[in-house]
Structure formats: structure tokens, C-alpha cells
């Protein structure tokens, strides 16, 4: 267990531990090896839990780092969430035994697709390229799309040390400026990565669409390719906008055309396009954050995602048509209460919704809200109303995508579930019991990675906010209310996408009461209303790296209402 030393009472230190669910305070005995300091991040060992949560006492096993060091953020998360940035020596040796390039015998019984026009589209910083694209349009106006995915299963054999370690990790974990990979770099960034002008082994999904984007037939084959170009999203966007000339321009524009057809079909099913920008923290060499970059979900991101969605859906269909037991990516319907809360917010913003909206009604709502000032708030509220997607051996469909069958196939470099799907396509069958065990494990590990990533992202944002506070204590932040309780309200600072809280006692001098029907706090004297979606301005007063808390002040411009 990890803790951060924050106080001392006589000879006993007090540590704060995020992992504890109730009281997070731990009484720490003096460390004999090195004197403890306030802010030390320590590894603790609890000898007796019987008195918890009333009191908990622990010994210090080791001093990991200090909370003031930005370099401690990821290292702390690795220890706290049981992740590792190094691979066992046996796993490294197994990865190193493979040559830098595929051998001649590896190409046997595979489709030679090296003459196909093929390229990758990825972020600027990407190093593991697990997907590439090819697209043609025939004389009838039909589209022929090929999605090529790195054939990781050719190298990571079931029961090998590589396989055992990949299963243990189950996925890559992405921190700001750093990736903890599922596979060693020799494979993830080397032999399995679909680099430019390099021969690579792949699994290719051939999809034939009519001129309206409806799939006519498909095929899935083991193959080998040679990607002709490594495009970034930014470069691809310039080609689409006519700002960059390239020999692949015609194909890129064809991809935009097919993407829009597929989006239209998906939208008619009721699948919602949220198109939210991604907040990317800018990290310096010392792991200190220096700012944020908003990455827009533009057409380049959309077309790659659309083609990957279609490939995943097609593979799921293939496995089901063969009655092959598999792992599916499922997404259950949201609870009635969560849905009603979202509908109420949409109606409060002035959007018309019938009593029991269909998926298509919700999709139309977001289409009409795109130019609204409340679009972002609606997107966030909709996401929060959803249940989490998980892996399962039972196919119950995917609510968010409005699909009856869906799986994960397109990222075997960074997801173990995808690696299993590759094996099921060609070389093995598994009983449902074994698939269930893998599905549960992958879902659990995905949540662990998510919590670790969220923890580091939060701490990095707190460090950035502290910088802003030091530079300008009077800096005002634009925000909007996300959730209202009887004791205060939560808000989100945009574009940092940071959640803060203001207690009811800090709103102002007025007396505020909670109106359950309006889901709002209402001032008695001012009649000021705080409800979800309300835009506010806030001032940052204090940041605490130890508790991950922040203290904010509302910039209140309301005056008392006139009494008649």
C-alpha cells in the first residue's frame, strides 16, 4: 500500500492513502533507515487491520519518492496499481529470438498484398502501428476496403512466456508522455509494427461495399503487406483540405467518401457521434506538464475509427456465422434513472424529447445540438449516463454502437482480447469457460489501467493548475455545472476537463436550498439558480497534491432581487 506523509503527531507520522475506501489516514511508525519528511511517498505494510477504519497503523517498507517531484507521478501509479514498466528476462529473450524482418517461410500460405496501395494514419507520436488501410472504387461505384492488422498471433504463441506476460498485462497503459506496453518493444514497436516501406505479416479484412456503403461480402485472410506511407492525422487533414499534395490524395478522398456513407448508416441505426475533442497534456522532459493541447475529432480520426469499427463488426459476424465461441465487446443499456437524468437535462436546455425517446431520437438530438452552446455539456452527461463496455463470452450486443454483434480485433499489439480473436479466426478453439475467464480478466485489467491513467492525469492537471496559480492568482476559469447536490455542486473547467466542487457555504452570502424537482440550488434572496449546464466563472484558491483536492471560489456577479 502507498501513502504520502502529510503530518506528524509527536513521534508518529500521518500518511494519506488513496487506495483506502473509508478513512484514508494511516499512522506510520518512524522509519529507521532514513528520516521521514513531509511529502515523502512511502510503501507501507499494515500488520493488523482489525482496528480499521477507526485507526490504522503501518510500517514503512521503503521511501519511493517525493510528492513535489513530477517524475514520481507515473512511478507511484505503477506501484499503486501493480503495473510494471519492465519485462522479465525470459520474455525479453523470447522476443529477441525473432529476426528483424519476416522470414521467407513466414510468407507461405499468405496473400501477397505488397502491390496494394497501403498506408497508415496515426497520431504524431505513435510508434506501434497495428493497422493499415487500402481502398479502391470500381467501375460500378462499389468500394473495396481492406483493413490490415498486425499478425501478432504469428509471433506470440499460446503458452509461451510472451503470451503469459501479455495475458498478465492484458493491455497497454497510456500515461501522459509515456506508454507501458503489453508487449516488449522488439515486437510492439518493431516486428509487429506496420512501419513504412517494411515487409510485415498481417491479417487482412476484405470488405466489399455497394455505392451507398452497404456491405455486400467480405473475406478474412492472413497476408503480408508493405505500407507505402506513414501519415499523421495532421498530414492527412491537410491533404483533405487541399493544402498538401500527395500521390495518395485520391485514395484519401475516397476514404472520406466511404466514411461518410458508413457514418450515415450507423446514425440511422441510432448510434450517436459525440465528436468530442481530446485533451492532451504537454509533458516536458522532467515529466512536468507545461500546457494542454486540444485534439479535435476531425474527419481523419473519424475515418480511421469508422473503418476499424466495421472491421471489428465484420470479424464478429464471421465468428458467429461459423458458430465459433468467442469474446465479444458488449455494452449494456443504461439504467432508466440514468437515462431519465440525461433526458431531463436535454429538456432543460430547450431540446424537445418525447416521453420515451428512441435511439434515433437521441441521435437526432445530438445532430441538432452540434451548434448549440450546450453541446459539450450534453456529450459529457450522455457519456456519464452510459454503462461501461466490457468483454464477455456471451454476445448481448453493443448499445452505444447499436450493433447486435461486436468484438475487438484491430489492436492486438495493445489488447490481449484482440490477440485471442486472431487465434480464434485461424488456429484454435476455446471452450466458453476458458473464454469467460479471459474476458473477465481483460475487463478487470482494463479498469485497473483506466484507474492508473486517471490518477496520473489528475495529478498532472493539478500540477498544471498550481503553475497557473503561481503565475496569476487572479486567473479566472470558464466552467459549467455538471452535478448538483443539496450540499453544493460539481463543475467542469473547460478546456482542461478538470472537475471541481464548490460547497453550498462557499456560493455566497445568500441562503440556498435544493429543489429536487428542478435539480437545482436556488438562492432565497437573489433567486440565483445553479443547475446542471449553468455556465460559471471560478477562481482557483488552493491545490493539494497529496489528497488530489483543489479549492475553488465562485465569481458571483448576482445581486439581491428587488423587494416590492
Tell me, briefly, the overall form.
globular
Helix content: 25-40%
**In DSSP terms, counting alpha (H) and pi (I) runs of 4 or more, how many helices?**
12
Number of domains: 3
Q: pLDDT below 50 for ≥5 consecutive residues: which ranges?
A: 559-564
Q: Give a short account of the largest sheet.
A: 5 strands, mixed, barrel
Number of strands: 26
Strands ordered across the widest β-sheet: 1-2-3-5-4
First and last CA, distance: 61 Å
What structural class do helix, strand and pairing data support? alpha+beta
Beta-sheet strand percentage?
25-35%
- Mean pLDDT over the residues: 95
Rg value: 26 Å
Keywords: Cytoplasm, Exonuclease, Hydrolase, Nuclease, RNA-binding
Organism: Aerophobetes bacterium
Domain S1 motif: 474-544
Pfam families: CSD2, RNB, S1
Amino acid at each position: 500500500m502507498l501513502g504520502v506523509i502529510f503530518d506528524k503527531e509527536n513521534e508518529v507520522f500521518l500518511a494519506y492513502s488513496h487506495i483506502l475506501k473509508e478513512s484514508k489516514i494511516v499512522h506510520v511508525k518512524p522509519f529507521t533507515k532514513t528520516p521521514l519528511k513531509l511529502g515523502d511517498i512511502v510503501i507501507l505494510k499494515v500488520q493488523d487491520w482489525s482496528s480499521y477504519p477507526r485507526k490504522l497503523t503501518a510500517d514503512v517498507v521503503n521511501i519511493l519518492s517525493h510528492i513535489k517531484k513530477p517524475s514520481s507521478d507515473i512511478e507511484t501509479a505503477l506501484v499503486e496499481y501493480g503495473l510494471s514498466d519492465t519485462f522479465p528476462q525470459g520474455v525479453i529473450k523470447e522476443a529477441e529470438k525473432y529476426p528483424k524482418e519476416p522470414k521467407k517461410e513466414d510468407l507461405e500460405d499468405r496473400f501477397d498484398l505488397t502491390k496494394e496501395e497501403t498506408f497508415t494514419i496515426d497520431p504524431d507520436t505513435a510508434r506501434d502501428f497495428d493497422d493499415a488501410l487500402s481502398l479502391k472504387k470500381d467501375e460500378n461505384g462499389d468500394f473495396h476496403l481492406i483493413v490490415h492488422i498486425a499478425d501478432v498471433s504469428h509471433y506470440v504463441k499460446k503458452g509461451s512466456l510472451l503470451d503469459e506476460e501479455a495475458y498478465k498485462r492484458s493491455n497497454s497503459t497510456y500515461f501522459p508522455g509515456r506508454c507501458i506496453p503489453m508487449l516488449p518493444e522488439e515486437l510492439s514497436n518493431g516486428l509487429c509494427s506496420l512501419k513504412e516501406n517494411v515487409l510485415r505479416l498481417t491479417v487482412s479484412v476484405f470488405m466489399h461495399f455497394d455505392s451507398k456503403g452497404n456491405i455486400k461480402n467480405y473475406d478474412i485472410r492472413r497476408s503480408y503487406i508493405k505500407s507505402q506511407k506513414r501519415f499523421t492525422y495532421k498530414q492527412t487533414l491537410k491533404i483533405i483540405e487541399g493544402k498538401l499534395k500527395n500521390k495518395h490524395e485520391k485514395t484519401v478522398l475516397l476514404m472520406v467518401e466511404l466514411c461518410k456513407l458508413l457514418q450515415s448508416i450507423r446514425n440511422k441505426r441510432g448510434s450517436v457521434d459525440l465528436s468530442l475533442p481530446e485533451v492532451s497534456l504537454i509533458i516536458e522532459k522532467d515529466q512536468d506538464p507545461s500546457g494542454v493541447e486540444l485534439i479535435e475529432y476531425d474527419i481523419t480520426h473519424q475515418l480511421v475509427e469508422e473503418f476499424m469499427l466495421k472491421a471489428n463488426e465484420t470479424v464478429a459476424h464471421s465468428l458467429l456465422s461459423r458458430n465459433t465461441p468467442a469474446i465479444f465487446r458488449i455494452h449494456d443499456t443504461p439504467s432508466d434513472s440514468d437515462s431519465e437524468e440525461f433526458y431531463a437535462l436535454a429538456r432543460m436546455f430547450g431540446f424537445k424529447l418525447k416521453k420515451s425517446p428512441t435511439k434515433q431520437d437521441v441521435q437526432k438530438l445530438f445532430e441538432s445540438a452540434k451548434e448549440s452552446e450546450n453541446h459539450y455539456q450534453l456529450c459529457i452527461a450522455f457519456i456519464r449516463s452510459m454503462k461501461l463496455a466490457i468483454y464477455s463470452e456471451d454476445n448481448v450486443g453493443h448499445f452505444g454502437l447499436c450493433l447486435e454483434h461486436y468484438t475487438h480485433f484491430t489492436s492486438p499489439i495493445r489488447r490481449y482480447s484482440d490477440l485471442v480473436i486472431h487465434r480464434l479466426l485461424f488456429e484454435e478453439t476455446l471452450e466458453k469457460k476458458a473464454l469467460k475467464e479471459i474476458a473477465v480478466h481483460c475487463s478487470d485489467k482494463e479498469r485497473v489501467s483506466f484507474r492508473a491513467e486517471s490518477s496520473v492525469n489528475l495529478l498532472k492537471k493539478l500540477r498544471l493548475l498550481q503553475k497557473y496559480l503561481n503565475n496569476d492568482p487572479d486567473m479566472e476559469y470558464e466552467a459549467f455545472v455538471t452535478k448538483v447536490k443539496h450540499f453544493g455542486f460539481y463543475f467542469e473547467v473547460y478546456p482542461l476537463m478538470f472537475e471541481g466542487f464548490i460547497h453550498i457555504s462557499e456560493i455566497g452570502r445568500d441562503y440556498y436550498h435544493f429543489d429536487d424537482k428542478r435539480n437545482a440550488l436556488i438562492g432565497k434572496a437573489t433567486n440565483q439558480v445553479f443547475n446542471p449546464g449553468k455556465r460559471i466563472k471560478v477562481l482557483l484558491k488552493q491545490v493539494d497534491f497529496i489528497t488530489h483536492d483543489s479549492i475553488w471560489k465562485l465569481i458571483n456577479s448576482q445581486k439581491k432581487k428587488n423587494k416590492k
